[in-house]
Specification:
The complex is a heterodimer. By secondary structure, chain A is mainly β. Chain A has strands at 3-6, 11-14, 19-21, 23-26, 32-38, 45-50, 56-59, 62-65, 75-77, 86-93, 102-103, 107-112. In chain A, strands 2, 5, 6, 10, 11 and 12 form a six-stranded mixed β-sheet that branches. A four-stranded antiparallel β-sheet of chain A has the order 3-9-8-7, with no helix packed on it. A two-stranded antiparallel sheet of chain A has the order 1-4. Chain B has strands at residues 5-7, 10-13, 19-24, 31-37, 44-50, 53-56, 65-68, 75-79, 88-95, 105-106, 110-114. Classes of the chains: A mainly beta, B mainly beta.
Amino acid sequence: GNSVTQMEGPVTLSEEAFLTINCTYTATGYPSLFWYVQYPGEGLQLLLKATKADDKGSNKGFEATYRKETTSFHLEKGSVQVSDSAVYFCALGGPNTGNQFYFGTGTSLTVIP
Amino acid sequence: GAGVSQTPSNKVTEKGKYVELRCDPISGHTALYWYRQSLGQGPEFLIYFQGTGAADDSGLPNDRFFAVRPEGSVSTLKIQRTERGDSAVYLCASSSTPGSIYEQYFGPGTRLTVT
């Protein structure tokens, strides 16, 4: 079946620290992988995506590389800001998942000045 | 442009009552999705519409849940005989292209509390 396992939080970092949020997946076939972000009081927004193995998605200083050999899509940012405080969701989708996205449980990030 | 909107933003109802939750997708988006997000969890798929028809309703938990999209735009999620376990945030998303490899745009959600 299809599933996403995401690093549990909450995560608290100081401003300018390095961020990694781990995400691994189980899927049939070749899914697309996504990171969504939910800022306080707002809806889910797409942060970045990768549609095939070895693709790197990037946006707003965040990066994630689709690693088929380790079935992973870890989110990284070199220097976090207070404004990055949010809940981050890893998700899986694609032709073999039908019309569904499979989401991880979310990782809450708080960045302190 | 306007994003996906959902009304109401909060709904408190008593156990056993009927509720309707509304979703207005982005204009022109043919694909519409409903998800349920319980506390501390990621969104879970409920149902997918392509146009007016429910193309995939495999995520609906039981026959108390039903959704419609009569004109291919606004959708309503209907829950009969609500139970306390139905308490969650109900999310709606729309997409210009069907199929989950494309970006889905999410609304802010309706928080349902069943007392």
